[in-house]
Amino acid sequence: MKLEYKPCYTKEEKALITSVGPIGSGCYVEIPNNETKIRTLNFSDCPNLESVELPDSIKIIDSKAFQNSRKLKEVKLPDSVEKIGKIAFENCTSLEKINLPNNLKTIEHNAFCWCAALKEITIPGSIEYIEENTFEYCKKLKKINNKYRRRY
């Protein structure tokens, strides 16, 4: 049986993808447990990427990591993630909801810019810094659950 989908590729020589498989008409990725970060541009412009579940070893999501992955609907981030880089999820227009991990410290600028389908987000109490325009042009974002308490 031949699979009828376009797999997602990384843009670096060292691919993080250990397997790609169909989910409906899209695809998913599995990432090795020993990786500590999703590198810049690793999954940007993946036309059929719909779902990502990151292992507990991931601490950093670099800038532009998932940028322009327009079919991406669901991202499961482990509590080990401490930083989401600039424009990491920019223009992921199908992303409706994302769980921000309890140990997250930094969200860099425009991390979720143009996530037009994003409806709800919870800011964890661990946040130390949220840069400007993080949720710019998230037109459907109606609910922000804010557990962050400003530290002086």
Provide the domain count: 1
Apparent shape: globular
Q: Can you tell me the CATH architecture?
A: Alpha-Beta Horseshoe
- Strand residue percentage: 25-35%
Tally of DSSP helical segments: 0
Strand order of the largest sheet: 1-2-4-6-8
Q: Which CATH class?
A: Alpha Beta
- What does the largest sheet look like? 5 strands, mixed
What would you note in describing this structure?
By secondary structure, the protein is mostly beta strands. The chain is 0% helix and 25% strand. It is built from no helices and twelve strands. The strands form three sheets. The protein has a five-stranded mixed β-sheet, with no helix packed on it. A five-stranded parallel β-sheet has the order 3-5-7-9-11, with no helix packed on it. The protein has a two-stranded parallel ribbon with strand order 10-12. β1 (19-23) and β2 (26-30) form a beta hairpin.
